[in-house]
Description:
With 173 residues, the chain is mainly alpha-helical. It has five helices and no strands. The model has no long low-confidence stretch (mean pLDDT 91).
Amino acid sequence: MMRSSADTNTKTYLLLALLAALAVLLRLGENLLPLPMQLGGARPGLANTLTIICLYLFGLRLTGLFLTVRVLLVGLLSTGLLTPGFLIGLGGTLLSLLLMELGRRSQAFSPYGIGVLGAAAHNTGQIAAAALLMQSAALFELLPLLLLLSLPFGLLTGAIADKALPLLRRLLR
């Protein structure tokens, strides 16, 4: 029995909604983690695992939808919409999505590399947005340490995505 296109779309949007809900929970849960250092809110970025998965499963357009939902919900539930924290996070999210998609399309990176690229781009985008909002280039002094942290955190998110992708691809068939 062949599946109709409506069944496929329903399954796709249902999985996308579930991934977005999980991403929101992961992001909000990271706010509760006792971190050994408070460096500009540096976090593992576990929700980025789901962004990587979405890019590989659904492409840029639906990943953009996924991120729009995630960013708006996290903004509503955490930082508030259009607050400095929201805008700084948005800057990181946009740059990260752009560079991860370019990396994925180039086929030069595995999910591990996409994870590192996304983490580094997110940190860079956040610092750039914060510097713009605060009108201070001094914030860029934090960037080398944040980029260093991008390596283990990005490898972690990429590894989780790499292991989850085969299972999710089977689920979508």
